[in-house]
Amino acid sequence: MKHSTFFWFVLPSAFLMLLFIALPVASVVTQSLYTAHEQVLVTVENCGPFGCKPVTSIDQEATQALNADKPLGKWAGLDIYKDRNHLAFSEVASAWVNVDGLPDFGKTLLNLPFYKAMAFTLTYTFVVTPLTIIFGFFIAVAVNSVAKALKGPTIFLTLLPFIVTPLVGSLILFWMVDARGILGTGLQWLTNNPDLSVKASTPLMWIMLMVYGIWHAAPFAFVVFYAGLQTVNSESLEAAMIDGANRWERIRYVVIPHLFPLVTFVALIQLMDNFRVFEPIVSFSAQAHATSLSYAIFNDLGGETRLLSSAAATSVLTIIGIAILLSPVLIRTYRDFSKPS
Amino acid sequence: MANKATAQPLSVKFLATSFLMFWLVLAAFPFIWTLWGSIKVEGDFFSKANWANALFGGMTHTETGGSFTGDGYYGAFVEEEFWRAALNSFIVCFFVVTISLTFGTLGGYALSRSTHRYAFWFLLFALIFRAMPPITLVSGYLLPFYEYNLWGKLSTTIIVLVAINQPFTLWMLHAFFKNIPKDLDESAMVDGCTRFQAFRHVIIPVMWPGVITTGLFSFLLAYNDFAVTSMLLSKDNQTMVPKLASFLGTTQTKGNVMFAVAAVVSITAPLFVMVMVFQRQIVSGLTAGAVKG
Questions:
Q1: A112-338, what's its fold?
Q2: pLDDT score, position B270
Q3: Which residue range(s) make up the domain with B37?
Q4: CB nearest to B226's CB, from A21, A167, A323
Q5: What is the pLDDT of residues B271-284, one digit of tens each?
Q6: How far does the CA of residue B65 sit from the closest CA of chain A (Å)?
Q7: Are strands A41-48 and A74-75 parallel, antiparallel or unpaired?
């Protein structure tokens, strides 16, 4: 394809991505280096019947003018990254000196908003991703063995948790584990503890969020593995059997190696999606027990005072995080492409 | 399956079937339960006294006189004007899908036919963009959108969703176009077509399966989005998902959690129909990137 034809064909996509993805990233980085203006204060002599007093008040007009003049705020350098809500350098340094032992240090870190969000995001990503793959694999194997007529309905039901809106899916589960819902009551009965409430307990909340994550993503892994199973070469299976491999060995040495490239694919997509975990925290109103990086940004942006700079700094840190997470994959893709094939 | 290598002994079959049963209940029961609960009153949906109330509707009987009630739906759609959100969702999804596919087919086709190195770099950057959580971009949009008075409009959100959708659309359509033989359009060009004419008259007629599948996923992304729509739409322009989230904030205190339940069912219903009609396409779409490499 000629350069100029290629250019015209990709122009609309490239333009949109440049304008609404690349540029905002630049804008986020810039924003994170600025901080909101302080309010302009004026001191006036306030004279009453008992003499004159100097009174300090906010000059609304001047503040507004300043904000309109420089909407980004004032230059702050890396200060926002260093403050308590982000990397919290001084708090971490003082904790390092003052606490006794590593567990205590960890506890102090988890009280800082950014590290708390980071801890949950990483735990979620690295627990949910492998479990999704394993669970999806087993569903695929099970569906593969049902009668042909039942396959359609089975796949339909299996797809539901994946297709449904994340906010809605997590809300449905949340209502069921509510202390007055069917699963919540069931849990109370099982543990014989009438006061048990998922809402009130941090470990239970973490577990529920991860259960939701697996419930939501397992169908995706299932579909990919199921398609992979259709292409397993039955001749190699037979050959393995003739060579004396039992059922488990056939799965271990024929089926799993065949599916392995798919595992990398599912893992890649899952790492990206789990790292942005966000909606379930909104639905579960879990912010007191678990926050994620995405939720922290959402929280800064919402509400009365939009903390743009704080949200921007968290966004930059999140993007750096995802870049580190995906760097092995990107390097491999690059190598695969560079190899003469 | 007469094949001996794939035949299963009874114990394995039993194990597989019971696991599958367990999973199917896990996958489908929450939806059935919520659908059933949405036509009850709150006292039954969240029953302190007896969980079986939710099944038989004891409170619903005492409060409304019937076994079922449409109060939740009435409250959500009429009192809280959920229909407006449904209409907005429809507008957003329609335009996001149309624009995404138009831009995506052009770009995806070019990427699948170009042998130059920059096509690879283009795809790699698209992959990086795909990996970025949408909410990180939102914090970059707000200030410029306020400045230029673009915030809160449906059209702004549509364009933003199209842009966020592009990396995925490009990857998927690129994979589909790779499977359409090059000879097809090249022979048209030998016959004197320009590249665009070849695309228009030869490729477009055969690309529909891929386009429909990609369109389904664009639709899902626009329909399910919460991060972008909740931050970029004003209250009047909200689509269904952010509207549902606003129910959670305001009406839960008023005791109208049933509005939210009705909204949840209303959001889920179109998705059910979609999966029923397009199951094949969804399955083939999910595997397109994976199986073919």
A1: MetI-like fold (1.10.3720)
A2: 94
A3: 10-74
A4: A167
A5: 999 999 998 888 88
A6: 23
A7: unpaired
> For an interface test with A, which of B23, B240, B276 has the most A Cβ atoms less than 10 Å from its Cβ?
B23
Distance set, CA B186 to CA B107, B114, B173 (Å): 18, 13, 19
ipTM: 0.89
Instruction: Please give, rounded to a whole number of angstroms, the shortest distance from the CA of B1 to a CA of chain A.
Output: 10
Are residues B164 and B91 both part of a single domain? yes
Quote the pLDDT of residue B7: 66
Residue B292 banded pLDDT, cuts 50, 70, 90? very low
Whole-number Å distance between alpha carbons of B138 and B127: 19
The region of weakest confidence among B54-63, B104-113, B115-124, B172-181 is B54-63
Q: Which residue of B has its CA nearest to A136?
A: B23
Domain boundaries, chain A: 80-111, 112-338
Burial degree of B43 (CB within 10 A; 0-12, 13-18, 19+): buried
Neighbour count for residue A108 (Cβ, 10 Å): 18
pLDDT at A313: 92
Chain A residues closer than 8 Å to B126 by CB: 17
A12·B106 Cβ contact <8 A:
yes
Contacts of B27 in chain A (CB under 8 A): 157-158, 160-161, 215, 219
CATH value at residue B180: 1.10.3720.10
Digit-coded pLDDT (tens) for A154-213:
999 999 999 999 999 999 999 888 888 888 888 888 888 888 888 888 999 999 999 999
First to last CA, chain B: 28
Residue of A nearest to B223 (CA): A165
Number of domains in chain B: 2
Interface size, chain A vs chain B, as Cβ–Cβ contacts under 8 Å: 289
Nearest to B166 among A13, A160, A326 (CB): A13
Give the pair of three-digit tokens for residue A144: 């593969």
Q: Residue A238: pLDDT above 70?
A: yes
Which residue, among A176, A182, A220, would best test binding to B if mutated, counting the most B CBs under 10 Å from its CB? Answer: A182
Q: Chain-wide mean pLDDT for chain B? A: 86
* Residue A56, beta-bridge partner list: A43
